[in-house]
């Protein structure tokens, strides 16, 4: 039950950006998103260590760090492009959609792992 709460919180926080336009509320919401993201980053390399063969751990960690760094570069550029073409209120809809996909993926993967096939 608690595994699915994190993606739901992310979705709620991103959707809340569309409804609350006060500076203090936006600062609080981005703080909460940062707490969630800060919790996910250390878990990802640990999961990589469990699912990647030992001889490919270096490559896997490097590509994970590259993806994180690339996201930090592309994200602000993409944000500027969206703001230029649309408005700030549109900016949070794609993030909310991505969070919803994250929720659904987590839900279905958790349910699929909950009832494993019995051996032989």
Provide an overview of this structure:
By secondary structure, this protein is mainly α. It has one domain (2-114). Helix content is 83%, strand content 0%. It has four helices and no strands. Helix 1 packs antiparallel against helix 2 (23-51). The chain starts with a helix and ends in a 6-residue tail after the last helix. The model has no long low-confidence stretch (mean pLDDT 77).
Label the overall shape.
globular
> Which band does the percent of strand residues land in?
under 5%
Mean pLDDT: 77
Distance between the termini: 29 Å
Major sheet attributes = none
Total helical elements: 4
Residue ranges: pLDDT <50 for 5 or more in a row?
none
Say how many strands there are.
0
Overall number of structural domains: 1
Q: Portion of residues in helices?
A: over 70%
Succession of helices and strands:
HHHH
The radius of gyration computed from the alpha-carbon positions, rounded to a whole number of angstroms, is 17 Å
Based on secondary structure, the structural category is mainly alpha
Summarize the entry for a quick read.
The protein has 120 residues and is an all-alpha fold. Helices cover 83% and strands 0% of the residues. It has one domain.
């Amino acid at each position: 039950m608690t595994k699915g709460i994190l993606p739901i919180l992310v979705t709620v926080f991103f959707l809340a950006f569309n409804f609350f336009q006060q500076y203090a509320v936006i600062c609080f919401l981005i703080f909460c998103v940062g707490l969630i993201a800060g919790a996910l980053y250390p878990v990802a390399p640990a999961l990589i260590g469990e699912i990647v063969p030992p001889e490919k751990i270096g490559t896997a960690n490097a590509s994970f760090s590259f993806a994180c760094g690339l996201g930090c570069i592309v994200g602000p550029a993409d944000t500027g492009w969206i703001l230029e073409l649309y408005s700030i209120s549109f900016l949070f809809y794609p993030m909310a959609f991505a969070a919803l996909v994250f929720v659904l993926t987590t839900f279905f993967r958790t349910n699929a792992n909950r009832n494993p096939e019995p051996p032989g």
